[in-house]
Amino acid sequence: MPRTKLTVFSRFLLFMLIALPIIYVAASLYNGEDPVNNVRGWLGMNNRELLEERYEAPAATDAPADMEAIQQLRSENEQLREALARCQNTTGS
Q: Which keywords has UniProt assigned to this entry (predicted)?
């Protein structure tokens, strides 16, 4: 069975694959940061934080004014239904 040797560059890549994450975690912890949350932020996995930033509480509204607007929309809807029914009756006969 032939034995293959690793080139200098492949050894360097293997070292980087193992050493860089360890070095990053150590440096992040030294600086007082959370390395897992940093990586999640880079990958867009912090959905909760994004939702909290985008969420705005609805403004307090006046309930009677809302009810008046609803009643107005209902009456307009009824008028439009009647107009549609008249149009369908005139074209159907």
A: Membrane, Transmembrane, Transmembrane helix
Q: What is the pLDDT along the chain (93 residues), one digit of tens a residue?
A: 678 888 999 999 999 999 999 999 999 999 999 998 888 888 877 666 555 666 666 666 667 777 888 899 999 999 999 999 998 888 765
Q: Where are the alpha helices (DSSP H) in the chain?
A: 8-30, 35-43, 47-54, 63-92
**Number of other CB atoms surrounding residue 40 within 10 Å:** 14
pTM above 0.70, yes or no: no
Tokens linked to 6: 């690793």
Alpha-carbon gap, residue 42 to 24, rounded angstroms: 14
Q: What is the dihedral of CA 63, 68, 71, 73, to 10 degrees?
A: -100
